[in-house]
Amino acid sequence: MRFTKHWTAGLFASLVLFSFSTALLAQSKLPARDPAAPFATRSATNGFLSLSIEDSSTSALGMFTVTTGASHPNPNQLVLYPVGTSYISLRDATASVIYGNAEGAVSGLAGYTYTNMNTAGTAVVTNLGTTGYRTTWTFPNWTVVQDVVINGSTLSDTNVRHTVTVTNTSGAARQYGLRYMWDWDIAGNDAKARIIERNAIAS
User: Fold this and answer.
1) Contacts of 84 (CB under 8 A, 6+ apart)
2) How deeply is 51 buried, as exposed, middle or buried, from its count of CB atoms within 10 A (0-12, 13-18, 19+)?
3) What kind and span of H or E run contains 91?
4) Do residues 68 and 13 lie in contact, with contact meaning Cβ atoms separated by under 8 Å?
5) C-alpha–C-alpha distance, residues 81 and 108, integer Å
6) CB neighbours of 183 closer than 8 A, spacing ≥ 6?
7) What are the helix and strand counts (H, E) for the chain?
8) Calpha distance 169→191 (Å, rounded)
9) Top-confidence range, 11-20, 81-90, 144-153, 184-193
10) Is 67 within 8 Å of 50 (Cβ atoms)?
11) Are 131 and 116 in contact (CB under 8 A)?
12) Contacts of 131 (CB under 8 A, 6+ apart)
């Protein structure tokens, strides 16, 4: 039997609103990537917000950033820190493995090992319309699908939807956790990094 779970969050152009039922916990971000080794990204925009996602790195595929677009009152400003510090991770508690799409990360939990999602199996980025991207990871016991899409056509209704779907493909129950790491850099303030986490049993 398959178990699929969805979480959605919005990054708004004029306000940043949190509407989650779980606590947001502070976490240190990953070290900034060496600027001499730039990411290979593809980008999309609706004019008010712009989205860039890594689509070729073997270790960072699926990592993304958001900036304000040319039609925003304050254009070309960061909403998330540049590609390389915002990421997702899947904790397979049954196997004591943490899968993540961040290079240079560590498990952070005693008894767990960290495995990069992009080298554990297959990974690919595809377009979702003209303003979004889907990243699909397939590795032992799991399929993970990340959708990042800019919605809206005006300043007031523009948002970015980040959805991750986890499917247990093992044929047996497994305990897991899913974590989002967003490294905010709003109005030049690079002081906050936030995570949101959910845990469940997938069968």
Assistant:
1) 30, 32, 33, 39, 60, 63
2) buried
3) strand 87-92
4) yes
5) 22
6) 29, 80, 81, 85, 86, 190, 193
7) 1, 15
8) 38
9) 144-153
10) yes
11) no
12) 44, 45, 46, 51, 149, 150, 151
pTM greater than 0.90: no
Q: How confident is the model at residue 203 (pLDDT cuts 50, 70, 90)?
A: low
Which tokens hold the place of 139? 């590795």
H or E element: which one contains 119? helix 117-120
Which pair of structure tokens corresponds to residue 59?
């270790």
- State how far the Cα of 17 lies from the Cα of 155, in Å rounded to an integer: 15
Instruction: Please give the span between the terminal C-alpha atoms of the chain, in angstroms, as a whole number.
Output: 6
Read off the pLDDT of each residue in 21-37 and give the average, rounded to a whole number.
Answer: 42
Would the pLDDT of 189 be above 70? yes
Q: Which two tokens stand for residue 98?
A: 């943490």
d(CA 151, CA 148): 10
Ramachandran class of 95: left when φ > 0, alpha when ψ lies in -120 to 50, beta otherwise: alpha
Does pLDDT of 176 surpass 60? yes
Residue type, 106: V
Alpha-carbon dihedral 80, 83, 85, 90, rounded to 10 degrees: 100
Share of the chain residues as helix, strand and coil, in percent rounded to the nearest 5? 0, 50, 50
